[in-house]
Write a structure and sequence with these properties.
- With 368 residues, the chain is an alpha/beta fold.
- It folds into two domains: 6-175 and 337-367, Medium-chain alcohol dehydrogenases, catalytic domain (Quinone Oxidoreductase, Chain A, domain 1), CATH 3.90.180; 179-314, Rossmann fold (3-Layer(aba) Sandwich).
- The protein contains eleven helices and 17 strands.
- Helix 4 (176-189) crosses helix 5 (205-216).
């Protein structure tokens, strides 16, 4: 292939609605720098970070959840200076997309040419080589550097993990962001065998990953989702599924589990149910969050925290080593992909609209 050629790519031109996503057929193919590889993208998944970065939701000036209208049209009066996950300014134009599966087609200086042809999935956390465990120096693929909503993309070679699997590229692209986030959350709280864990938002990408990974640890899983998706959550391995809109939800959960309390909550929802999640924790229970799709501003009684000796954790930049474990789980068939639907790159806006409607289970995939 000619590295001086052009490619299809979705280019984000600024914060705002779908109009800020521009599909190009003639965007320059990137060249791998030293210690980088060039990947021909086979598939790239969509996740909440793509939406939230585009609309500037991470800004402290935003107090609402990620709504369908806000995700489509953008949010008024955001602060540009802290509109990314790390509280920094986004550099435009930017190619988003963190969930890449594909093949290495070229390498930069310092990378063995033997890597050309390898089938890989990408760890989306880009780290400083001199201090990889320093979370303050980490950047995110598709946010701090161009990502995978394109035919080609570059990453540091250590971020391209060889994968040996019979799964398709589209299936593999469901794993990187959602499943590594979920495994990080479970690592943060040290979830153990036979412990009871509550998972709100269980049908989304991270939620469905949490179910599988918690069951892999032989925990007892209680999933909260919409009524129409309850059976699928049970099929994924959840021990109990609850309709998030049912009356008396907290009491119904208490009645179905011994002791009426859980050991842990893995939350990506937040919003008005936050206090209920803490109430359901046992003494010494652990809460972990990696999102707030129902709203980041919550009601929080500090007495619940200290009188019950609770632990609370945030989970964003995962430790080195988690993604390597994830690759092993995939290769061993310990977790399964949940591919909701595939879209061509030209339909990126339609794909994100469907993502925002939240009627799916699992992940939407872009095919370049």
């Amino acid at each position: 292939m000619a590295l001086t050629g052009f490619m299809k790519a979705v280019v984000l031109t600024g914060h705002g609605g779908f109009d800020k996503l521009v599909v190009h057929d003639d965007f320059p193919v990137p060249k791998p720098n030293s210690d980088e590889v060039l990947i021909e993208v086979g598939a790239c998944g969509i996740n909440n970070t793509d939406i939230n970065t585009r609309i500037g939701w991470y800004s402290k000036s935003v107090s609402s959840g990620t709504t369908t209208a806000g995700g489509a049209d953008g949010i008024d009066d955001i602060s540009e200076v802290d509109a990314t996950w790390g509280g920094n300014v986004v550099v435009f134009p930017r190619i988003q997309g963190a969930d890449v599966a594909g093949r290495i087609v070229a390498v930069g200086h310092g990378v063995s040419r033997k890597r050309v042809g390898e089938r890989v999935i990408v760890d989306p956390w880009i780290r400083d080589r001199s201090d990889p465990e320093n979370r303050n120096l980490a950047g995110y693929f598709g946010s701090e550097r161009d990502g995978g909503f394109a035919q080609y993309t570059t990453v540091p070679e250590e971020n391209a993990f060889v994968i040996k699997s019979n799964l398709s590229d589209a299936e593999l692209a469901t794993f990187p962001c959602s499943y590594s986030t979920a495994e990080h959350m479970l690592d943060r709280i040290g979830l153990q065998e036979r412990e009871k864990i509550l998972i709100p938002g269980a049908s989304g990408g991270v939620g469905s990953a949490l179910i599988q990974l918690a069951k892999r640890r032989k925990a007892k899983v209680l999933a909260i989702t919409s009524k129409s998706k309850m059976d699928m959550m049970l099929d994924l391995g959840a021990d109990h599924a609850f309709d998030r809109n049912q009356k008396g939800l907290e009491q119904n959960i208490r009645e179905i589990i011994p002791g009426g309390e859980v050991n842990a909550v893995a939350d990506i929802v937040g919003g008005t149910s936050f206090s209920m999640y803490l109430n359901l924790l046992c003494r010494g229970g652990r809460y972990v969050t990696s999102g707030a799709i129902a709203g980041p501003i919550v009601e929080f009684d500090l007495r619940t925290l200290y009188l019950k000796d609770l632990e609370m954790h945030g989970a964003t930049v995962m430790q080195v080593g988690i993604f390597k474990k994830l690759v092993t789980y995939i290769e061993n068939g310990e977790i399964r992909p949940l591919l909701a639907k595939k879209f061509p790159i030209s339909q990126i806006k339609k794909a994100q609209e469907a993502f925002l409607n939240k009627k799916h289970i699992g992940n939407f995939i872009i095919l370049p």
